């Protein structure tokens, strides 16, 4: 027992001995260890007294360290435990004035017990409260005093003592976690069991150590423990190199000299270390950022995440931030932690602590005014979160901004100015944020407070503008833009006042200076946005508009110079240097200003006034800029302008834009005529941007993706232009480069490919069916150069114009083109790069014009025979390989998806054949697939059966079945498909017998009968007995949801046929009963979410088509309800939504109305006792057990329940909502939901809208989810005990 205490206490010494650098607190600790060792003749474990020899590898001598750290005191040789140990420097918890951990240097700690005090009565000092600095007693890092203990201060510069638990057993474990230590003073019970300590984040003490032998702790051991507790509480150790693994040591048997570290994840994840180190938050953060082992980083992240949720995080973060010797990364991490605590755990603070927390945050912000900017930003975010929690009245009446201005006014400007400006930038950015855990009405009130503070803020910013410090003007403009964004559309902005405001002048002047250019662009963009509404400037804002627009357009000459530089640089082949990069960024800023002006005033520009053309000219210059990303900044303006000109920006499709009322009036035609030249210039500017670069193949894949993305954007813009210019005029403009290249005998295939791409882009505004230009273009496709990319684009153009070609074929204009197009596509199928486009085009062409393609049925079936037989090479597996050896390979260059596209296209064409030919063609399509499928199912030696099959065999079966599925799905002949399914059903059964244990293969096998039933419909009635007998058997053997798919289709097709009701009822009872037996609790549902999804999809479909099939069997509905209750809170989205939909449909009045009275009565009797539990689970899901995105689904279910059960349902809902504690949702907020529920119930089945109920549910959900504590309290009250472990951290 005593050795264990000494072993644990001396780990602190080892931590510093191992790393060769000492600071004052660490040196004093080592002196204490040495003195105690000498005094009591302690024999420490060998691992703890190993000293690294001076001058060893990677170490420095004590003399060298002394020379380097002349500010440190020398370690007295007489007190050194080892004369040759190296010294460790670590920022220990040292208070000013020579106070070490609450005791003056050189004096014994004041809180140590008397020499004869027993271990279980150690007068350990209470834990410092998590709110020291918040309570007002400690403005900075203070020395400890009695007031801190009583008031509960945020000081972390003192040791933590854990009170003993009832019964006298001491909780002296030196490895007690921060959660335990902090909760000892702040928490309710002041009792923490050793087992709980072992499970807590950050570690725990050895279970039962204090009571193991009932031995008192000797004074020396207690003193060691005291020292170690102080070091652990201060959390101020340097990172430990390769041993910087988080975790807390706990006694465990293991290798000699080793300690077992229990990580926060689980006790199963252990790391054996020979030094027994205890790692605080700073060491864990160092491991997170720097440790080479990813597993260690992951563990460190988990430990730190758990630590951030603890009460101890308040005090430790504050201490680290006040300690100038802490590392930058530790400061940053603790600033993040403090920000997170203020946002999410504000209610952990004691009453009245907000003012002191505010003072502490401002003090820290000023401390880091010249320090790490990321740390300062996190502190600003913490202040913004505090502003979300505190109403304006608690800031002194003037709100947060005026309080901060007054507080900062007394500080030196070089520190106060950057802090004030950054806070003023962050505050509006966080307006309305959902990160702070506040009530919804408080979130809205904060936004209103900030908006009302805009005039005062602008005055403060104008004052700051007069001060001159580094980046001050840039920060002022950033804050100016942020506040404009918050105030946009409010009455607090006056156009005339803003036009004359010094901030506006500064923003416009900042456009001329490189240092402030970016911030000025942001501010001016926000000013422009504030002036517009509905595409026009607002009347009160006209003075500001008149100042902004000319100032922005005056940048055109500067932009032209930048464009010339960029063009010269590109033509010279230079890569550009730093100046070129600056030019690009400046050009982006100016282009953005032009685009903002154009988009803000599009409706005004669309009126066609002469003065409105200046922004249009500026945006044409943007479109002409050599850089694609800058040119693309104008595209949205052209889209908006085209919509205003053609459809008045109504939600009308572009295909119908030409018929818009606006374009039919004289004014509409006048406006179009005004902008036709501009759109023509725009088309001429952007059409060349789609041309592939000459070095296309040498470009990196990311560069190719960027280019393709830009081509898509250009294509959309060309479509907008076509809506204004008309398809025929646009075609002329797009094909002009091809005609010029053809007449000049130059251009190459890239020019042709660019032209085809542009024509493809405008297919939605295709010209009349007899357009000679487009017909001629299609007629010339066969003579294209041999380039794979060109073939790909040509095939994609055919695919895009499939509907236009079908109309032309019906009009007789394109009949002569069809053979050439088919030849083009067939040839492209043999090209690896063009094959996907050719397959897609063939499918679209056959789907759009099946009657015309049916004339080429023989050629298409020949193509199908080659394509459908393509697949993997014969499998070298004895008889199987021999059986497939004659299976021909096709020249198709694509993958399986391309094969399926071709098969679908041929199926569409076959569907247009006469009945007899169609049946023959269907047989010709099925036979080439069934024969190799049968061969693949024959085991070596000619035997059939469920023998182990090679993976290649399963892959082959999947390919063949998928192709057969496409045939069944798209050949529109119900009788023929039903007959074909009957013939091949035996093959499917044989395949299931062999591959039923392969889930993927079984799923593909079930798709074919499913789609065949969908096509065949009632014609497949003769197959119902066979399917009804086979599906339950295979499902019981495999429990694959795929078999439920087929049953779902049977219910949909035959659910209304009384002659098949008994067979379908038995089928559903067997399938759903077996499924429910595997979905008895949330764990089973979570382990098999796909099964749950399929089960309730099937049950829901049965309720829709034939409710009696589900409700009539006595045991089926109770089993379904129990499984629904078990899986209602499953996190899997599809499974959860299917369950909710089933429950909602079950309470639909129409479901019971379509059942016989006795069945409805039986169903009601099964539902009544289970509904209160379902309602309680639904409320739990709404307040946090399910993601917030499913609140609407939950509201729909509650709506159905209330309509069906009326006042009884309201009472059930009241019981559930009443269980939510006041700390999660006050009574008034809970009542709002019950009022909406009562209104729904009062209307009964006549209620037709769930909007009010959904709003009430969402309000309650948002309220309870505002913080982790409120959410967990609600879930503890609502969920049964067996479900709590699933939802509690």
TrEMBL record:
Keywords: Nucleus, Transport. GO terms for cellular component: cytoplasm; nucleus. It is found in: Nucleus. The keyword Transcription regulation does not apply. Residues 108-119 have a biased composition (Low complexity). GO terms for molecular function: small GTPase binding. Signal peptide: none annotated. Residues 152-162 have a biased composition (Polar residues). SUPFAM superfamilies: ARM repeat. Residues 300-367 form the Importin N-terminal domain. SMART domains: IBN_N. InterPro entries: ARM-like, ARM-type_fold, Exportin-1/Importin-b-like, Importin-beta_N, Importin_beta-like_NTR, TPR_TNPO3_IPO13_2nd, TPR_TNPO3_IPO13_4th. Residues 93-216, 231-261 are annotated as: Disordered. This is Importin N-terminal domain-containing protein. The lineage of its organism: Eukaryota, Viridiplantae, Chlorophyta, core chlorophytes, Trebouxiophyceae.
């Amino acid at each position: 027992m005593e050795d264990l205490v000494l072993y644990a206490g001396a780990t602190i010494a080892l931590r510093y001995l191992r790393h060769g650098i000492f600071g004052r607190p660490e040196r004093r600790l080592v002196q204490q260890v040495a003195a105690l060792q000498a005094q009591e003749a302690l024999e420490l474990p060998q691992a703890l007294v190993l000293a690294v020899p001076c001058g060893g590898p990677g170490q420095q001598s004590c003399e060298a360290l002394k020379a380097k750290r002349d500010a440190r005191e020398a370690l007295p040789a007489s007190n050194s435990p080892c004369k040759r140990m190296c010294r460790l420097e670590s920022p220990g918890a040292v208070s000013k004035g020579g106070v070490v951990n609450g005791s003056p240097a050189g004096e014994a700690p004041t809180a140590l017990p008397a020499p004869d005090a027993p271990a279980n009565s150690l007068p350990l000092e209470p834990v410092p409260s998590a709110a020291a600095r918040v309570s007002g007693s400690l403005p900075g890092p203070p020395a400890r005093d009695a007031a801190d203990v009583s008031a509960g201060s945020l000081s972390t510069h003192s040791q933590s003592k854990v009170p003993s638990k009832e019964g006298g057993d001491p909780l002296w474990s030196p490895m007690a976690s921060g959660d335990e230590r902090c909760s000892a003073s702040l928490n309710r019970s002041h009792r923490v069991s050793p087992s709980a300590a072992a499970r807590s984040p950050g570690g725990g003490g050895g279970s039962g150590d204090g009571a193991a032998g009932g031995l008192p702790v000797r004074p020396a051991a207690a003193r060691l423990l005291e020292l170690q507790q102080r070091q652990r509480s201060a959390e101020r150790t340097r990172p430990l190199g390769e041993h910087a693994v988080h975790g807390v040591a706990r006694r465990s048997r293991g290798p000699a000299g080793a300690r077992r570290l229990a990580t926060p994840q689980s006790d199963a994840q252990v790391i054996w270390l020979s030094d027994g180190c205890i790692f605080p938050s700073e060491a864990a953060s160092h491991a997170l950022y720097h440790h080479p082992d990813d597993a260690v980083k992951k563990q460190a992240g988990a430990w730190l995440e758990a630590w951030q949720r603890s009460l101890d995080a308040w005090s430790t973060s504050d201490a680290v931030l006040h300690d100038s010797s802490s590392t930058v990364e530790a400061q940053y991490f603790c600033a993040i932690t403090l920000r997170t605590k203020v946002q999410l755990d504000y209610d952990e603070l004691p009453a009245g602590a907000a003012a002191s927390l505010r003072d502490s945050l401002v003090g820290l912000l000023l401390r880091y005014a010249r320090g790490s900017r990321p740390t300062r930003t996190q502190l600003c975010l913490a202040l913004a979160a505090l502003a979300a929690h505190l109403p304006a009245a608690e800031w002194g009446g003037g709100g947060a901004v005026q309080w901060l201005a007054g507080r900062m006014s007394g500080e030196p400007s070089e520190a106060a100015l950057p802090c004030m400006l950054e806070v003023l930038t962050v505050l509006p950015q966080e307006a309305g944020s959902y990160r702070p855990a506040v009530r919804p009405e408080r979130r809205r009130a904060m936004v209103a407070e900030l908006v009302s503070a805009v005039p005062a803020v602008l005055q403060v910013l104008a004052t700051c503008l007069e001060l001159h410090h580094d980046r001050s003007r840039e920060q002022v403009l950033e804050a100016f833009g942020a506040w404009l964004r918050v105030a946009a559309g409010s009455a607090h902005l006056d156009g005339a006042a803003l036009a004359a405001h010094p901030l506006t002048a500064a923003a416009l002047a900042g456009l001329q200076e490189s240092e402030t250019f970016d911030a000025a662009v942001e501010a001016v963009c926000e000013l422009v946005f504030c002036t517009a509404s509905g595409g026009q400037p607002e009347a009160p804002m006209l003075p500001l508009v008149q100042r902004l627009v000319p100032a922005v357009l005056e940048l055109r000459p500067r932009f032209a110079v930048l464009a010339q530089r960029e063009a010269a640089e590109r033509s010279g082949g230079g890569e550009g240097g730093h100046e070129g990069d600056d030019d690009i960024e400046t050009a982006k800023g100016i282009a953005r200003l032009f685009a903002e002006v154009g988009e803000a005033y599009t409706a005004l520009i669309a009126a066609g006034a002469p003065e409105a053309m200046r922004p249009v000219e500026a945006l044409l210059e943007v479109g002409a800029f050599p850089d694609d990303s800058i040119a693309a900044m104008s595209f949205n303006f052209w889209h908006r302008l085209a919509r205003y000109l053609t459809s008045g920006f109504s939600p009308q499709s572009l295909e119908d834009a030409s018929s818009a009322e606006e374009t039919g009036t004289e004014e509409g035609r006048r406006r179009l005529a005004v902008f036709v030249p501009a759109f023509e210039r725009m088309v001429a500017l952007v059409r060349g941007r789609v041309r592939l670069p000459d070095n296309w193949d040498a470009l990196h894949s990311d560069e190719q993706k960027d280019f393709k993305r830009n081509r898509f954007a250009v294509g959309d813009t060309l479509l907008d232009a076509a809506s204004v210019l008309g398809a025929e005029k646009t075609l002329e403009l797009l094909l002009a480069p091809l005609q010029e290249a053809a007449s000049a005998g130059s251009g190459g295939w890239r020019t042709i490919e660019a032209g085809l791409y542009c024509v493809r882009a405008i297919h939605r505004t295709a010209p009349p069916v007899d357009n000679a230009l487009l017909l001629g273009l299609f007629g010339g496709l066969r003579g294209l150069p041999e380039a794979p990319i060109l073939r790909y684009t040509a095939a994609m153009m055919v695919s895009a114009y499939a509907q236009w070609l079908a109309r032309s074929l019906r009009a007789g204009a394109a009949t002569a083109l069809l053979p050439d197009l088919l030849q083009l596509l067939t040839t492209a199928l043999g090209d690896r790069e063009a094959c996907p486009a050719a397959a897609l085009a063939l499918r679209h062409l056959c789907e759009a014009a099946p009657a015309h393609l049916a004339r080429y049925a023989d050629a298409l079936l020949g193509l199908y025979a080659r394509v459908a037989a393509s697949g993997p090479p014969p499998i070298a597996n004895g008889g199987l390989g021999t059986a497939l050896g004659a299976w021909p390979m096709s020249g198709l260059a694509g993958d399986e998806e391309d094969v399926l596209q071709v098969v679908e296209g041929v199926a569409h064409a076959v569907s247009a054949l006469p009945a007899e030919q169609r049946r023959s063609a269907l047989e010709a399509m099925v036979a080439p697939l069934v024969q190799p499928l049968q061969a693949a199912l024959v085991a070596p030696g000619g035997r059939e059966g469920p023998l182990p099959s090679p993976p290649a065999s399963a892959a082959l079966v999947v390919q063949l079945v998928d192709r057969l599925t496409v045939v069944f799905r798209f050949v529109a002949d119900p009788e023929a498909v039903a007959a074909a399914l009957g013939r091949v059903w035996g093959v499917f059964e044989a395949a299931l017998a062999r591959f039923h244990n392969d889930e993927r293969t079984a799923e593909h096998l079930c798709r074919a009968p499913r789609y065949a039933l969908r096509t065949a419909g009632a014609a497949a009635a003769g197959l119902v007995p066979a399917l009804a007998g086979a599906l339950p058997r295979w499902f019981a053997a495999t429990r694959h949801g795929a078999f439920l798919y087929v049953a779902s289709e049977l219910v949909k097709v035959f659910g209304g046929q009384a002659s098949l009701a008994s067979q379908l009822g038995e089928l559903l009872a067997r399938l759903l009963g077996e499924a429910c037996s595997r979905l008895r609790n949330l764990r089973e549902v979570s382990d098999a979410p796909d099964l749950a999804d399929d089960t309730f999809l099937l049950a829901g479909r049965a309720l829709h088509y034939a409710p009696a099939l589900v409700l009539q069997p006595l045991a089926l509905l109770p089993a379904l309800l129990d499984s629904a209750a078990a899986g209602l809170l499953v996190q899997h989205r599809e499974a959860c939504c299917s369950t909710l939909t089933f429950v909602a449909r079950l309470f639909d009045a129409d479901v019971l109305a379509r059942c016989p009275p006795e069945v409805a009565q039986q169903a009601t009797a099964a539902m009544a006792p289970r509904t209160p539990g379902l309602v309680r689970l639904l409320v739990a899901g709404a307040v946090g057990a399910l993601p917030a995105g499913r609140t609407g689904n939950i509201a729909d279910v509650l709506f159905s329940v209330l309509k069906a059960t009326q006042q009884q349902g309201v009472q059930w809902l009241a019981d559930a909502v009443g269980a939510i504690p006041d700390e999660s949702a006050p009574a008034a907020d809970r009542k709002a939901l019950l009022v909406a529920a009562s209104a729904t119930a009062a209307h009964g089945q006549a209620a037709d809208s769930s909007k009010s109920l959904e709003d009430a549910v969402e309000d309650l959900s948002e309220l309870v989810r505002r913080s982790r504590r409120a959410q967990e309290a609600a879930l503890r009250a609502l969920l049964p005990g067996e479900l709590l472990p699933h939802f509690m951290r």
